[in-house]
Every structure is written in C-alpha cells, then in structure tokens.
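Re-run requested by the PI after the first attempt was lost when the workstation crashed. Everything re-entered from the original request form. Ligand of interest: NDP.
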Amino acid sequence: MKAIQICETGGPEVLTLAELPIPEPGPGQVLIRVEAVGVNFIEIYFRKGVYKAALPMTLGSEAAGTVEELGPGVSGFEAGDAVASVSVLGSYAEYALVPAAQLVKVPAGLSMEQAAAAMLQGMTAHYLAYSTFPLKAGDTALVHAGAGGVGLLLTQMASRLGARVITTVSTKAKAELSREAGASEVILYTEKDFETEVKRLTDGKGVDVVYDSVGKTTFEQSLNCLRPRGTLALFGASSGPVPPFDLIQLSSKGSLFITRPTLWHHVTTRQELEWRAGDVMSWAVKGKLKLRTELMYPLAEAAHAHIDLENRATTGKLLLEP
Ligand code: NDP
C-alpha cells in the first residue's frame, strides 16, 4: 500500500511516498481502507520535530473509510461499515489500523470527505465551546484564525449558543467567510491592531473568553483582550510556541485564567467520544454545521497540503485522497 512517511524531521520535502505492507489488526484493532484523510497542524509539528516521535513514522491521525478486517476481540463493527476516527495509527495511507475504542460509525447522509473533515476540527470546536469555556447567550468570545478549519466551526457553534463572536483574520476574503459562519465582528489584523479593536468593540470591558490557536504572535495581546477573570483557551501554536511566561501577569492583568487544552483529554471515554462525534456529525447531516471541504489533494501531494496550511493559504479543511 502507499503511505506518506517521514524518516527525518524538517520541511515539507521530508514527506516521502513509501510502499508498505498492509498492516494486520492486533487485539482491539480494526483495519480500515482509508477513503479521506484529514490534514491537521499536528502533522506539521511532528514533521518539524516540535512533537517527538519514533522514526520512520507514517503521518496522520484523522481519516474516514471502510472497515476491512477486525482484530481479535473486536465487536460492534463489521466489514463494510463506514467509519471515522481521530486516532488512526498513520492515516496518510491507503490502509490503516485504528483502536476500535476510538472508532465511530459515519451516519447515513455524510460523505467520507465530510466525515474526515468533521471529526478532529469539529470535536475540537465542540469541547472548546461546550467544555473548556461553556458558552451561553450574552457571552462575548474572541476567536483567532476565524476562517481557519477550527475557527469556522467554532464560530458557528458559538454563535448558535447565543454568544457574540469577534474573530481575527488576515484577508478580506477570509473576513467574508468568517462573517458567513456567524461572526458579529471581524478584525482584519493585517490592517488594524486587534487588541485596540476588541477594546473599542467591547467599550473597554474586554471579552469573556479568547480561543487562541495562533500562539506566539497573539498570546500577550490575547490576555490584554480579556475582562477581569476572563479565560484564555490557548489551543494551538500556528505561529510558534508561546515562550515561558511569568504567572504574576495573570494577577496584574485581572485575575485571569489560562488553559492549554487538547482534544485527547476531551474524548477519554466512549461516552464522551460518541457525544462529541455524534453532535458534530448529526449537525453536519442536518445542515446545522457547515463543513468547508473544498481542498482535496492526492495522497502523493501531501507536501503541498502542508505548504498551503503553513502559509495561511487555506480556509476550512484540507483532505488527502488515497
Ligand atoms: P487553520 O485552518 O486555523 O490554519 C491556521 C491559520 O492560523 C491560518 O490560516 C492563519 O489564518 C492563522 N495564522 C496566524 N498566524 C499564522 C502563522 N504564523 N502561520 C500559520 N498560520 C497562521 O488550522 P486548523 O484549524 O487545522 O488548526 C488551527 C490550530 O488549532 C492549530 O494551531 C492546531 O494545532 C490547533 N488545534 C488544536 C487542537 C487541540 O485540541 N488543542 C486540535 C485541533 C487543532 P489567518 O490567515 O486568518 O491569520
């Protein structure tokens, strides 16, 4: 089978198309034929060596596909089932293994592409809006990268919960998409200082929560955008990791809260996984959650997907087609 591997860390050029044997499912595992692969920033962190892994490594953790074979002890699935997961053991491939405990069925009415697009970014938006800082009517949230994959989904969920959503984006085209997703106000941070704008838009009060996936270049100002006792949910580092930070600043800036959440700690039980995946996929089927999936690359062109994602050239979800 074909798979995209890295044998060393580095730029997009380290992604290599390899020919590997189809893996055999062990106890508790399911072999799937991959039909759509979700591309996520985490693969860029692994490729660059920001996150460590044993090499060679087949990249990728998100995919939708069809069950091929069940490992010993697996029940609840059968060959031919349409399934999806964010815990695939190397999803940039034609076939991949998935722990059955982390696999969910794709409901009728959702394509493989939509399923692959919904899972990781959708469940991330879900835990941010429903668990990290559970939003309610009247709250004001600042969402960075408002036209990004997570950003578009988070904005839709937050506005549906009745929150006022202010977003930041780099271009006018992205501003338009962010508005369509439900943002009340969109700040073009390439033209205006977002901290000044947020203060102006909130009459100097600040927002209740900042959902910050950008990291290094936004962190300090994100804190300044919060109301006293507001929450910063720092959930990514698209611009690079945030440098070490003196906690006393949380006091001087208004008894603030910071959390650095990750999806893996929000799908720890079968019940929680089914709740989040079920919500996201059923909303997508009913048209309550709009998925943006127009960027599809052949598996062999995974490097292009990485380049586009890193260069802020994308909106919504990037997928690979094996
Ligand atoms: P996005 O589609 O949001 O792409 C990143 C966006 O960030 C860009 O399009 C760009 O938007 C903005 N950005 C700002 N500065 C930079 C920069 N220096 N380099 C690159 N991009 C920049 O990606 P995803 O939706 O896939 O992921 C968003 C973030 O969320 C990532 O950091 C990812 O690691 C994180 N994440 C975290 C999870 C968790 O559980 N903790 C789970 C899933 C994702 P603009 O042009 O508008 O500035």
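Saved to the shared folder this time. The mean pLDDT is 97.
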